[in-house]
Amino acid sequence: MATFEQFWSRKTLLGLGLGQFLSLLITSTGFTSSLLAKKGINAPTSQSFLNYVFLAIVYGIIVLYRREALKAKWYYYILLGLVDVEANFLVVKAYQYTSLTSVMLLDCWSIPCVMLFTWIFLKTKYGFKKVTGVVVCIAGLVLVVFSDVHAGDRAGGSNPSIGDILVIAGATLYAVSNVSEEFLVKNADRVELMAMLGLFGGIISAIQISILERNELKSIHWSAGAVLPFVGFAVAMFMFYSLVPVLLKINGSTMLNLSLLTSDMWAVLIRIFAYHEKVDWMYYVAFGAVVVGLIIYSGGDGDENQDPHHVAEDASQRQHDEEATSGKS
Questions:
Q1: Which of 207, 219, 296, 329 is deepest in the core (most CB within 10 A)?
Q2: How far from chain centre, in Å, is Cα 193?
């Protein structure tokens, strides 16, 4: 059993603090996306494009200054860029159809997806309690869907059912992106990852904008009320993307997605105090289920990233090193 000092270690506190800051950033992107949707602006790919440009410029300059060969294959970054762009497109598009709270809650679908993908591809181990916690979270997600179906005349969107489907699809792609980033940040380089994601994400976004959103951009009246949410979204996304690899390296994909669960709290507060909207009672039940699932997961079986095979190898290596050191003395 872990002691109090071990639990409140520097690594734990850093992960919790960074996770909550990321949660606030993701809530702010949802807030700005919801503002644009209310203004009738429907350009989800264009919203994310500026973020990729920022990433390509800032981190690209560092990569060029280093003059080092890429540590991962370039086509991995193209695939990651494609997945990431479409994930952003689907989730931002969902704000045209459903409420801010629904998007934030249904984004939790990425958690079981991340666990499945890390178990398959990264060989991460999860105990019974952690799996139980995720199951309870999924139960909360089901309640959200039922709530949107029976309360579709709410001021939250024109077609909540379609919005829910878009969010779930986008959350699945986010899970693929998160797990891929975790693998690359641990086996390649964080700066290289951000530069290449920005480069290829920007190229793919530009192509998609020219096909799907060219007329939409022409029809937008570019007042301060439209420009500020666009820029705010891009700045928040740039900070989010820059800090995500840090948390992935420290605590992994599952910790990232669990930390983002608290964004639901901020989303509900925004909806009540900023939009003056009433929250359907099933949201409270759904959120309660998500919180309970998070508590069960947090008190689960040890470190989910602990691979027994690797632990045995590390112990054997330490024993070998100790024997070699004693033999020399």
A1: 296
A2: 16
Q: Which of 37, 95, 14, 23 is nearest to 265 (CA)?
A: 23
pLDDT digits over 165-181, tens only?
999 999 999 999 999 99
Crossing angle for the helix pair 44-66 and 74-94, to the nearest 10 degrees: 150
Chain segment 70-113, per-residue pLDDT in tens: 999 999 999 999 999 999 899 888 888 887 667 767 777 888 88
Q: pTM higher than 0.70, yes or no?
A: yes
> By C-alpha distance, which of 87, 88, 96 is closest to 163?
96
Nearest to 19 by CA among 240, 274, 234: 240
Beta-carbon contacts of 61 under 8 Å, excluding residues fewer than 6 positions away, are none
Helix, coil or strand: residue 240: helix
Cα-to-chain-centroid distance, residue 13: 20
Look up residue 137 and give its amino acid: C
Measured CA to CA, the distance from residue 238 to residue 178 in angstroms comes to 15
Structure tokens, 313: 């190898």
